[in-house]
Write a structure and sequence with these properties.
Elements: E1 19-22, E2 27-35, E3 42-49, E4 53-54, E5 63-76, E6 81-85, E7 89-92, E8 99-103, E9 107-112
Antiparallel strand pairs: 1-2, 2-3, 3-9, 4-8, 5-6, 5-7, 5-8, 5-9
Length: 113
């Protein structure tokens, strides 16, 4: 990730539009902000997964992901599984390790990619 110059700003996440993204099961709700100019634009999201959410794809995008609330299970394509609880994070690079997320209890995440 390259962070080019852009002005200082603050985000009130409750004022950012909430967009629904259905999973294989459950739903994800994204609040998304974009910063900087393409091709080095940074996407910052506050994401809420409903209980029972399972992503409908294996993601190959790199992220820095922080678990704000709840519990998130992330599976890697090679079979490894990782559990994040509130206060934990993970980071993975673009095209490094395909991953898929799910939660039984629901989760709120802060994601930068």
């Amino acid at each position: 990730m390259k962070i080019d110059v852009f002005a200082f700003g603050t985000t009130n996440w409750s004022e950012v539009e909430r967009i629904e993204h259905p999973g294989e099961t459950g739903r994800a709700y994204w609040r998304t902000q974009l910063f900087g100019e393409k091709p080095n634009q940074i996407r910052v999201r506050m994401v809420e997964y409903t209980p029972g959410y399972l992503a409908d794809h294996w993601c190959q995008k790199g992220h820095i992901l922080f678990c704000v609330e709840g519990e998130l299970e992330t599976m890697l394509e090679d079979g490894r599984k990782f559990i994040l609880t509130a206060g934990m994070s993970y980071q993975v690079g673009d095209n490094a390790e395909p991953h898929q997320s799910r939660t039984t209890t629901g989760a709120k995440l802060f994601i930068v990619d």
